[in-house]
Amino acid sequence: MSDLLAQLYPDHLATLKQRADAALARGGFDHLVIAAGAARYQFLDDRPYPFAVSPQFKAWLPVTKAPGSWLVYTPGNKPRLVYLQPHDYWHVVPDAPAGYWVEHFDIAIIRKPEEALAHLPKDNARCAVIGEDNAALEAFVPNNPPAVVNYLHYHRAYKTDYELAMMRVASRLGARAHRAAEDAFRTGKSEYDINTAYLNAVHETENELPYSNIIALNQHSAVLHYTELNRAPPAHADSFLIDAGASFHGYASDITRTYAAKQAPEFQELIDAVDTAQRGFVEKVKKGTDYADLHIHAHHVLAGILRDQDFVRMSAESAVESGVSGVFFPHGLGHLIGLQVHDVAGFARNEAGDTIAKPAGHTYLRLTRTLEPRMVTTIEPGLYFIDMLLAQLKARPESQSINWDKVDKFRHFGGIRIEDDVACTDGAPENLTRDAFASLN
Ligand code: GLY
Ligand code: MN
Ligand code: MN
């Protein structure tokens, strides 16, 4: 694997340099300076929150644990890494730089954060400085110029071959751990124990994962971001929704699967229908697909399932138009993914920071761009039985067209979501997630 990464890295770096050249020209700056970030402390405490490196920093090199470090790029020069390795016996000192990327950087080791100043450009007025407010040295307050940031964010949607290789690995790590979690569900484990099985298999700490695992048995999966972990197993675990990913050198996978217990074939039937629909949406991850249109299409297909399985007694069209489909599918079809699980610039119309509006009434959609090769998006349709939204529906005239007996029988299953990470190519979509599951067999 590291041979492949070593082979792909120079082109990745060349792409980042080209983007940085263009971004600096747009903003009228001479240098791009990126802070890795610094620890943030809990209120009135000396405990830091888990460190999260700036995504703009980890785009350049596979280093995610380098608080106090900086990256400097000046067009025409080798990029410089100012790397903080404190003399510190309290904490683990970041590893010495090593690996395929090192030869591409001019590296300055510093022992104290303030020593960075000597290695940063002299005239900070000529610098686009990307960073958080707490990452600043006195003379290097981040200015995060919108012309530069918008340009870099827009182009982050287009993954290099190196990034796609990283994301394939993140997908394989996640898929392997999903298998372990499914086994734990099938043997009657609690949410807490299923999560432990996942963590053991993915071999990452919770802080290293790209997002907090959602491990939900029965009606808990009706809470879209359920992150409790019940210690005791339920008397009957009839359904299981798991939304959990993995990280590889800062790149994310984001995977959801839903399972029915053997004694719940009626729920399996609904899962199978959503699964078939999901595969159909994946097929449409093609050059030129308007993602907002795909999201609306998903509403129609999911509404058709609700009608075919007799949850609603109305046409798919009227279910979508009246908002009934949104009661059962109340989130977006997906989002860009890469260095962040919800990658930036999902609404970007262009490099300048203009945006493409969401379709009216679809406030939770995170992606409105037209798909192009090298974009990676999730496809994550769902159908849920959410008490709060169903109670609101009951008060509306459309209530008469709902088969409440059937809906009520499904409430304890919570809901279904099936989520894959899919790369748009010049031809057929590449389903990173399903390829990863297939590679386990
Ligand atoms: N796991 C977060 C999401 O699916 O967007
Ligand atoms: Mn997602
Ligand atoms: Mn997810």
- The proportion of strand residues reads 5-15%
Structural class: alpha+beta
Any idea what the CATH superfamily of the largest domain is called?
Answer: Creatinase/methionine aminopeptidase superfamily
Total strands: 15
What is the succession of H and E elements? Answer: HEHEEEEHHHEEEEEHHHHEEHHEEEH
Molecules bound to protein: glycine, manganese (II) ion
For the termini, the CA-CA separation is: 20 Å
Give the low-confidence spans: none
Overall pLDDT confidence: 96
Top CATH class of the largest domain: Alpha Beta
Largest sheet: 5 strands, mixed
Number of domains: 2
Jot down its keywords.
single chain, 441 residues, alpha+beta, Creatine Amidinohydrolase, Chain A, domain 1, Creatine Amidinohydrolase, 5-stranded mixed sheet, 3-stranded antiparallel sheet, 12 helices, binds glycine, binds manganese (II) ion
If you had to describe this structure to a student in words, what would you say it looks like?
With 441 residues, the chain is α+β, with helices and mostly antiparallel strands. The protein folds into 2 domains: 2-156, 3-Layer(aba) Sandwich (Creatine Amidinohydrolase, Chain A, domain 1), CATH 3.40.350.10; 161-439, Alpha-Beta Complex (Creatine Amidinohydrolase). It contains 12 helices and 15 strands. It has helices spanning 2-27, 55-58, 146-156, 161-186, 191-202, 265-283, 291-308, 316-322, 324-328, 387-394, 404-410, 432-439; strands at residues 31-35, 70-73, 80-84, 106-110, 127-130, 214-217, 239-244, 247-248, 251-252, 255-260, 376-379, 382-384, 415-417, 420-423, 430-431. A 5-stranded mixed beta sheet has the order 4-3-2-1-5, covered by helices on one side. A 3-stranded antiparallel beta sheet has the order 6-7-10. It is globular. It starts with a helix and ends with a helix. The model has no long low-confidence stretch (mean pLDDT 96). The structure holds glycine (GLY) and manganese (II) ion (2 copies).
